[in-house]
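Final report, closing paragraph on structural work. Over the funding period we assembled a curated collection of sequence-structure pairs, and we close with a single example.
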Amino acid sequence: MADGPMPRICWDACCFIKLFNPHEEDADICAGVFQDAEDGKLQLVTSTIALNEVGVPGKRGGGRTPREPSKELLERACVNMIAADHAICEKAREFQWELRLKQRDAIYVATAVIHGCQALETYDDDLLALANRENDLGILIRKVLGAGDNPIPFTGPGPGLNG
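Its predicted structure, as stored:
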């Protein structure tokens, strides 16, 4: 890895949910990247709304992740949990209008943009549909890359949509 600050990668809840579902595709990739964060190779960022999406009963008949272990995972030192404060919610509101995003998706995008993440990693189809708009947002939107495959140099916060 190059000298200088570590890459900052934002995860939405989909990535954390995969950690608790080893039978799902790419669960091992998410586990490897999480280990990279624990080893100090990258900074993992998420929004506090992940607490409301991970470890709660799912819509598809039952919970998808265990309640207490998922909370413990989100609160580990290697996860930089960012509160959805006024500035993030204002930027998220812009993204809801400009990009027609759902509230939670807009909050993850705003968190990544405002907190200088180089990428937002997700398995959410609506967010992945924005992957071709990274220049407008100042961040990459992509599926999780394998452990050690985060060659993103730190460049500082992106400009975000409309400044």
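The longest helix spans residues 86-99. The CA atoms of residues 40 and 78 lie 8 Å apart. We thank the funder for supporting this effort.
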